[in-house]
Model the fold of this input.
Amino acid sequence: MSQPFRLDHGGRVDRDTPLQFTFDGRPIDAFRGDTVASALLANGVTLVGRSFKYHRPRGIVSAGAEDPNAFVQLGHGARTLPNRLGTVTAATLGLKVRHVNAWPNLEYDLMSAFGLVAPFIPAGFYYKTLMWPRRFWPLYEHVLRHAAGLGHAPTAADPDRYDHVHAHCDVLVVGAGPAGLAAAHAAVQSGARVLLVDEQSEAGGSLLSTDERVDGLPAPQWAATATAELAATPGVTVLPNTTAFGLYESNLVLLAERLRTDQPDDAGSESGARVWRVLPRQIVLATGAHERPLLFANNDRPGVMLAGAISTYVRRYAVAPGSRAVLFTNNDSAYRTALDLTDAGVPVAAIADVRTDTDGDLPSEARAQGIPIHAGAAVRRAHGRGRVAAAELCSLDGAPLGTVECDLLGVSGGFAPALHLHAQASGPTEWDPTLAAFAPRPGSGIHPAGAVAGELDLAATLRQGTQAGSAAAAAVGCSNGSEPEVPRATESTQAPIQPYWLPPGDLAGAKPQFVDLHEDVTLDDLRLSLREGYESIEHVKRYTTLGMGPDQGKLANPLATGVIAQLLGRDPASVGTPRHRPAYSPVSLGAIAGRHIGPLADPVRVTPMQDWHEAAGARFENVGQWRRAWYYPQPGESMHEAVARECLAVRHRVGILDYSTLGKIEITGPDAGEFLDRVYTNAWKRLRPGRCRYGLMLGEDGMIFDDGVTARLDDQRYLMFTSTSNAAPVLAWLEQWLQTEWPDLRVYLTSVSEHWSNIALAGPRSRDVLAAAGTDIPLAGRDFPFMTFREGHVAGVPTRVFRISFSGELSYEINVAADRARHVWESLVDAGRPLGITPYGTETMHVLRAEKGFIIVGQETDGSVTPSDVGLGRLLSRRKDFLGKRSLSRPDSVRPDRKQLVGLLTDDPAQVLPEGGHVVDDPGPQRPLPMRGHVTSSYVSPVLGRSIALAMVSGGRAALGERLYVATLHNDRWLPARSCHPVFYDPAGARQHA
Amino acid sequence: MPSPIPRRSPLGEIQSAESPPPDGQLVERPFLTHLNLRLHPDDAEALAAVHQVIGVQLPLTPNTITAGGDVTAIWLGPDEWLLLAEHHQSDALVADLQDALASHFASVVDISAGQTVIRLRGPSTLDVLARGCALDLHPTVFPPGACAQTLLARAQALLVAVDDTPTFDIVVRRSFAPYVAAWLEDSGRQFGLHFPTSDTA
Amino acid sequence: MLLIPCPWCGPREDDEFTFGGEADFPRPAEPEALTDEQWADYLFMRDNRRGRHREQWCHTAGCRRWFIVERDTVTNEILGAGTYGGSP
Ligand SMILES: [Zn+2]
Done:
């Protein structure tokens, strides 16, 4: 038989389904139902890793999520998963498991030389030692990273998809042990919608590793029956392999479900994990407890295990984790382990119990089995290098009691409630002196039950679970009127534990004694931290890295609280624990991202002309979530060449632009004009129907918020255009004023941004194109003048055509319902082909408007710019109030040295200024240089045959023509320029009126 | 006079007289009439006038719909509704409503081209929606006739529980429709759901 | 995650909402009549209370209504919500 430590009978493993996986390439035989850890133990593999700092050999400590050592790397290639716990990972056929923390290999670990040279690196070593000399940091970092191990991330993109699901229930039960099963059962009886989750592959928790009976059945059998019944009940969901890893405000709970655990090499395979986002109305917390380790020298040796874990391996997995055991305890539970081992034929050579009174039921039973019991005794030191070989016993005053040979040393320091979830959301906790641990108090909507509530007796746990389940159901109004039945088990009594934190007297001097096995934090480190004044548990944590490993200090922190309390001579209640934070156990980043990756990472918004742009070879740029055509390069053309061609086409012939992304708001009601008067700086009531006007919108601080054209559709209806990126903010802003300040105004706002596509024709031939495409709108200048709109058909489709211009050319913006926009676009392109119509993108649009000195909100403005700053003071009405008006007369708003919009022309017309470049008077030697302003827009202007720029320059408008210099990214290279009026082309505006 | 130019839906459907009504578990319901209606809920005369035109009472209970004839009225806010109509020409319905409400403070705006409806039907409907919607859509909480404006994945959406098949209509804005459709297909893959057109695409 | 009770739609997750700052800072009726200091007070100064706090929220992804929430800024407990007019 290849599994020398597998027991002949018993356990929950399926001996008819053998399977094989590999550990560091070595084949490991296992059965279905094994975890990686139980299979390794069955094969006599005790060394699973090297420690983080000292590279000491480390073995499996626990049988659950609290293990500090059993981190392994699963799978390979793009699907590899680092830092998975072998104690909760199901053993599956073909799974590739590797150690994470030894180099070059586990048996011969070079890095343990680190441990030999500097046997114990004091806490704070990294901060103190590796700060200097700084130039060695890359070397330190390289060596330390290599040394630190902690697994490695995949280097290729994850091929898997991960699922996310929202779920709701009346009662979420976390943990399917005795308390959780009883609670779920009771809640279901009351008619509640129940979600029951458990991190293990099989429900039952502690029931799976006890020989007790429930309702007359062996406990594991009762658990299986109860679970099957629940799963078959409508309205109940049972999720095994699912860890509740985070509890947040409003009792939002995040679950990570591991999927497809039966597949070979399942680590991260298709839908390797699913994250559930649960909003339960009530929570039953049945998360159990973690056994506490005990301090003695070399307490980190492989073979030192939690006593309860030994029972679990023996009873649930039919594995003897050793061949001769010693147990060290401060409570009764280790005696049950002693009996389990004896049952399994593993001799127990001694039990050291720090208590002097060892006459309880369980100790008496152990004594009756002939197990030597040392009362008032402790383990002083473990012997053995790669594995425990013996335990050195002594009395609590230090008197030697002999050295007992063993390869298994079980420890039990009592049980600390697994209150992590509860505490993550700041649920109330309190120090329970009978447990010598913090326990949760019921929080809002949270019902702790079972071991997490400090209840260690099975019968009482079942009772408490039942009560919690029905209380949770009752809290959401579910009840069937009768008392739920409590599953029955034999009552037992246990003697109280005796807290044992710090070995007494000179026992405490034996070294090294590990408090945190994962982070290699020793008792001496805690002493050093306190000596240096870091007494708060949060400071101790940061100074020593206590609890900062991927195990989150599940075993270390409850121990550290007691140790620190004793070292400081304080009450543990006042020491507290480090803040608990999600995630309870590692969750892969892919699972957190879910399906929000690749094309689904964020919505990509496109216009009805998207396909056409793509077919025309457009390059795109992202404008918020919009994808907009940027420019349309012809074969072999650079961006610069394409933009120049597009610009000249608009200036000399005609161009066509998809401007559908503009925000559009219909403003309706008898007070619409009054409303516009209040939100825009200029006057609106007297605008005649059929006409358009440019408007500026300010924040109450007087700074430009948005701009755009608004048209009066009829007496009581206006259509407002907003900038693309401000479409949603402007609507929210207008609604806020209407709803909260001016509810008396009879105005309704409706977004029509998506209903109307907008196609801009610009250039001297745009009128001809519109005519050629076919329209019933009279186009002659006197019939359809600048800043008016007309309704009619274009290419057979109803439209609203606006004669407005963002290019300074004769221009029409054609609003057409989006479902026929593509037809109108194509008709215009066809009609314009003989006239040389050229599609142009956002880059050309920007060049054309910059040539005209038109601002773009968010480019020339940045939330600190008033209308006067950009030369639009003429739009400020003196005769009415408007939002932001009062701020314009604040002293700061009228400072003569405010930054003002100017044009900049470089001395060398071929030089293009960098956008964002600082503007100074004189780049002389003085430092820091006084700033005059910054470049906001800068382009090559094809029609002018030179570069142009817009800039915000302090006091710039009064000093047009002055000599200025613009910084570049190259040291001390300054570009000389002269300021000028910001309208570079057609300053009289004749072209747009053509 | 109706325009002879065919309409294109956000998900690429092209309107034609012959095309059969969409059938399947995941389909677009293109080319419906969508009207945004605003009026004060205390204006009983206006409510009655609308009832007269569309044949159903406007729902005054938040997050519910009323349906009858070929118009569905969906609550969007205390003074705001979406009217979805199957067979109407939107221009005619807008005109009728505007006439009926001429003497009232009200607004009727055609937004038909600005949004579309995606219909999800069948046993996996709730499972698919649960992948991106944080609301509890269980029939005890969200029965047929309930509606909600909320987030579906990262897009705003209006969900309407149509019947207990279950069938849900998802109203989304035009530019978000391709994203929502891709997202629904991705979420629905594990349940074998896809749009009919994606077979050939 | 904060569940915010929209008076119209009931409790919804916070990502459906936009925060609008402290409530009860009405716009002065005649801004031009105010001194610079009084105007700056309206513009910039907020109480930022510890404990009970009245604030504006908009159900942006839902019914688009602005409403008032009373929230304890220490515990984040929501103590009540009210509309700017009308009731469901
Ligand atoms: Zn709402």
